[in-house]
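Methods: holo model generation. Sequences were used as deposited, without trimming of termini or removal of tags, and paired with ligand SMILES retrieved from the corresponding compound records. Each pair was processed once, and we did not select among multiple samples. The sequence and nicotinamide-adenine-dinucleotide SMILES for this entry were:
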Amino acid sequence: MDTLRLGIAGCGDIAGFTALVSRFVPALRLTASCDLDAARVSSFARRYGIKATYTNYEEMLQCGGIDAVYLAVPHDLHLPMACAAIAAGLPVFVEKPLARNLPEGRRLVAASEAAGVKVGVNYQYRYDRACHALHGLLAEGALGTIRHARINLPWHRDKKYFEASPWHRSISRAGGGTLITQGSHFLDVALWSIGKAPVSAMGYVASPGFKADIDVEVDTLAAGIVETEGGALISISSSMVAAREGRVSIEVYGERGSAVYTNRPWPRLVVRAPGFRAARQSGPCLPGFHALQRSLAAFVGWVQSDRPYLVPASEALPVLAAVDGIYRSAASGKRELL
Ligand SMILES: NC(=O)c1ccc[n+]([C@@H]2O[C@H](COP(=O)([O-])OP(=O)(O)OC[C@H]3O[C@@H](n4cnc5c(N)ncnc54)[C@H](O)[C@@H]3O)[C@@H](O)[C@H]2O)c1
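and the model returned the structure below.
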């Protein structure tokens, strides 16, 4: 297969950006798009030069003109729509999170493995050069044993965000709020980089910011502590109620040094460790101008040539376990074992 023909399900916010960067993935062609909203799918298809449009996902799966599916739909649809694609023998590139919660995520992984159909999850920060460098640094042991990490995500979402996509407000549809939707990107990077399974979690969630205007059930502010095997502690503060979108940071502290990732003004990693040379920062990341473009290109390479993709579905389970644990702890008031 020279070119992978991709069918997009869900033509909302992120799908537009993915369609844009897909123009820079030479081995990929968007050949079909699908959305429940007929006007949305036709204007999306016009904008990105996609020939076939559908308002029925099953019809797109059976159309014969696609080799894989990209799911950019609400979180409650990740499991059923991925399973339908798997049943049709089509590999899936599913937006993060893998699913609404850990049991659903495990079912999706089991379905993919039982059928031998590839499912990749778009946790694209693993393809951000500085996050990739952080992972490489920790994998080579440059900081020694990792003791703790601290993630801060001071993001901003306004009323329009919830009005445009009401599912984002609903716990039953989204599984949660800022923690699962935004914070899980960087919790995934921290867990992947530290390379140890999460074993327990504590959490506190709140929903300030919107109640007066609009009914938002999900967390707009979340704080959590995740303990990994070997006793490292990862703390996270994830927010969508900062007055303005601020800089994301991941600070990692090991017995021999520390490393700080920041995403603004551009992704960067500052390392303080004896003997560390800046040259080591250029890890084996793919070419390309954006992490999402590299993630998409890597998924295509995985499907076409079996080159490894960094986030097969099973790799997205640890972060889902950690997120689940933080939410369970926030409800129980106790430390939760994962
Ligand atoms: N990787 C990233 O950085 C990133 C950024 C934003 C969102 N996301 C993820 O992308 C996914 C979609 O989020 P969004 O913000 O684009 O949502 P959105 O609400 O903007 O778009 C979702 C689209 O899915 C459509 N849809 C709903 N049910 C459908 C069905 N049965 N068949 C076909 N289409 C259907 C909706 O009509 C809508 O157009 C979520 O998993 C979200 O977490 C990822």
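Residues 155 and 245 are 4 Å apart (CA to CA).
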